Amino acid sequence: MDPQLFRTKSIDQLISDADQPERRLKRTLGWLSLTALGIGAIIGSGIFVLTGTAAAGEVDRFPSILQAPLLSVIMYGRHAIGVNGRPGAGPGIALSFFIVAFVCALAGLCYGELASMIPIAGSAYTYTYATMGEFIAWIIGWDLILEYAVSNMAVAVGFSAYVNNLLETFGLHIPASLASPAYDPMVGWAWHFNVLGFLIVMLLTVLLVRGIRESAGANNIMVGIKLVAIVVFCVAASKYIHPSNYHPFLPNGFQGVLTGGAIVFFTYIGFDSVSTAAEECKNPKRDLPLGILASLFVCAFFYIAVAIVLTGIQRWDTLNNAAPVANALEAIGLRITDRWVTAGALMGMISSILVFQIGQARVWFAMSRDGLLPKAFSRVHPRFRTPDIATWVAGLFVGVFAGIFDIGTLANLTNIGTLFAFILVSLAVLILRKRQPERQRAFRVPWSPWIPIASVIFCFVLMASLTVENWVRFFVWMAVGLVFYFAYGRKHSGLAGPQTRPAAARAPK
After folding, report:
1. Confidence band of 337 (pLDDT split at 50, 70, 90)
2. Which of 11, 284, 447, 488 lies 20 to 30 A from 401 at CA?
3. Closest Cα to residue 116, out of 378, 270, 293?
4. Pairwise CA distance, residues 265 & 267, whole Å
């Protein structure tokens, strides 16, 4: 094994590189803005879209072992093949949200310790570079690109569905060819393109290029609106709860709860995007852990409340659609409330896209600054002090694919990458505790090493609850990334020796 693959970049060097004037980002964010960024990312399509999808499950047109959860395949072999490829959690989706919140809290504690030690853009990629070496850092960086990009594609698809729902309450309708993706697993391919999803991503890209302060300010307003909308939904709809809808509470047993948890895990991943804004935070050692954990706590409360109300007003097996909250309100006759909640849902989705695009561009920026991606991605706009090229490319990448794929396909692909990132972050805490016990930590994970170890175990169980098809797609994405690393990243790395770096990179300036 080539030892250069596991060369690490010291924490001091990472911090020094971030202070270079030509690549320095503008520090403007406090802990409240960071918490709002976390809430903005976490409460998006998940609470308004995936709650219904995970509760109802999906029936496969062509059942195969690829559609069965990996855990079921391991336990039951070929007998895991069934018509319910993804079993629904039913009313037990509230339990799924609680379990996932607990797992995320374990990982969030690990993120908090590392973010306070290494306040650098790049999140798990940066932490891994300092602990496990460049090769593993590349893998997780490539994985984070998948996480942020695909999650935003899924949110953009949900955004389009909710816009259509809102317009229909006024008697208007957008043609399916302009408001739905080209691919749907239930019907196959069609000559469609989700124009609404594409446009919202590009509009937010313009805002992000303009500046982080402006973006955070817009996010704060949208977060306020969507929290009010969630409260309105819970209060107004709670009067229409029928206890009979809660029976059976676990229609597919605990496997349904686990599979539902693996699906709704997508909804919680926003807290790790808080750490990607580390270089734009005024006091990262204090504010980053606080922002991460506060946003997790607030969002877990709202998620569980919505899950309880939604499955109480509608049968769980009727919720498999792109706008379950809006459709449920319409079904019980709360049309005016439906409009307000739909407007709040749209604000939630817009803020979610905004924050994830911040995170994605910062990961590209950090990898480029280390030489693993082309230098253009680490350019900082001379006036706005934002990574403008990385932001534009990330926006186009997300917008185009949001017009093509459906929300279920996209959400599933995101989850496995995120869980993998959480596992590596938890391991990074253990490695740094062993290698650098004397380094100052503004925040420390309590009960270490047990909490990081528990985080690794629970994240792996959730990964195993995803389908075999998702594991195949994940390994294909990783294989593509490895080809790019060995063809470009390894040779252009800032840590590459003269014998490895291309001649153009070695030439004196």
Report:
1. low
2. 488
3. 293
4. 5
Note the pLDDT of residue 410.
Answer: 58
Q: What is the DSSP string of 366-387?
A: HHHHTTSS-GGGG---TTT-S-
Average pLDDT over residues 429-450: 89
Taking alpha carbons only, the member of 172, 135, 309, 331 closest to residue 230 is: 309
Asked whether the beta carbons of 371 and 494 are under 8 A apart, the reply is yes
pLDDT score for 91: 93
Cβ atoms 364, 256 nearer than 8 A: no
Looking at residue 217, the DSSP 8-state letter turns out to be: H
> Which phi and psi (to 5°) does residue 87 adopt?
-65, 140
- Long-range own/partner contacts, residues 139-143 (CB < 8 A, 24 or more apart): 139/478, 139/481, 139/482, 140/420, 140/421, 140/424, 141/363, 141/366, 141/367, 141/372, 142/477, 142/478, 142/481, 142/484, 142/485, 143/417, 143/420, 143/421, 143/477, 143/478, 143/481
Hey, is 242 helix, strand or coil? coil
pLDDT in tens, 73-127: 777 665 555 544 567 889 999 999 999 889 889 998 998 888 888 888 777 888 8
Distance CA(196)–CA(180), nearest Å, equals: 9
Q: For residue 283, how far is the Cα from the chain centroid?
A: 24
Give the start-to-end residue ranges of the domains of the chain: 29-495
Phi-psi region of 189 (alpha: psi -120 to 50; beta: other; left: phi over 0): beta
The tokens describing 208, both together, are: 């992000």
Q: What is the pLDDT of residue 507?
A: 45
Q: Which CATH superfamily is domain 29-495 in?
A: Amino acid/polyamine transporter I (1.20.1740.10)
The end-to-end CA distance of the chain, in Å, is 33
Q: Are 495 and 130 in contact (CB under 8 A)?
A: no
How many Cβ atoms sit within 10 Å of the Cβ of residue 97?
31
487 Cβ contact list (under 8 Å, min separation 6): none
More confident site: 209 or 186:
209
Question: 385-404, pLDDT tens digit by residue?
Answer: 888 899 999 999 888 888 88
DSSP for 306-347, please give it: HHHHHHHHS-GGG--SS-HHHHHHHHTT-HHHHHHHHHHHHH
Give pLDDT, residue 88.
84
- Using alpha carbons, select from 192, 125, 207, 161 the residue that is nearest to residue 49: 161
Would you mind telling me the total number of residues written for the chain in this entry? 509
* Contact yes or no for 460/303 (Cβ under 8 A): no
Residues 309, 315, 318, 319, Cα dihedral to 10°: 20
Residue 489 confidence (pLDDT) above 80: yes
